[in-house]
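thread: overnight batch results

M.L. [08:02]
morning all. the overnight job finished for the chain we discussed friday. pasting input first so we're all looking at the same thing
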Amino acid sequence: MVRNEPFGNSVLFSRSVFALTAIYSIPVLLPSLFGWMLGMLAVPVAYILSQKGYRQSGNTLAVSLLLAGSISFFTGRLLIFAAILPLIALGYSLFQSGQKKRSPVQAAVYGLASMVGCLLFFWLLYAQGTGNHPYHQLVRTIDAGIVSAGDMYRTSVDVPADMQEELAAVLAGMRELIPKILPALLISMLLVTVWMNQVLWNGLLLKTLPKRAPWQPYSTWKLSEQLVWLPICAGACYIFGPESWKVIALNGLIISGVLYFFQGLAVFFHLLNRWKIPGYFRILLYGMLIIQSYGLILLSLLGVADIWLNLRPAPIESNTPGTEAD
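M.L. [08:03]
and the structure it wrote out:
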């Protein structure tokens, strides 16, 4: 039995509280410099819960978030801080999945559901408070941004008449396409957020507290084989289906491409380890994948190929046995 940590000066003035308060305040106060940290703020929650258990670290997290929220309120950055709250839910969900011995895929599903639930709640509050639907407002904002970018380009650069026509056609195509695929883009952003936090948290535990890491290294993770029907059905509907199905099929292809990118990247890491590729050459390969415009597509195809070619002979089935954090 872990003794409850007293809620008092020992918590309020502990180093953990100051560290967590800084972690959750700096991206809010300096978004232009540290805004990239916002997407990874589920990791500290999941890590401290895994390290000390919920009973011992719950007060520390509560005080840290309360202090960070107060700082955000008095500096006028409360809306930015609100974007952190779904990540707090994600961190707790990942910790619970580790405790309940869920597989990486199951943990990702629960984590995605927790984020979506928080976001829908905030969207409902926003819609009730402003009278505007957040999704429709986002579509209008993106459309206005495309128009503004085109106008700025025309005024800042002396564009020939033929190029102006091409630019107008490209912008018109973007204004028509983006609202159609926006659902897939939003879901993909959430999937990337869940995946990034899940991989970082598990990798950090493998390095520091390996007995409490819920899963094996990321290179062994594998999607369910039944999921391969998603890109197959989406591709068939897009090619052979009626026109009314093509938008749904395109969204399905984008989402499935992101999912199999995760698996393709895991296969890529596995092959690098199997072939004992030196570190400097790995950096070169990573750079090539990032620079090449088809790198993401190649990794997605590699992930699909792993289903039939069995590029990793011993895939992970469930969890790595670990020690309960509580």
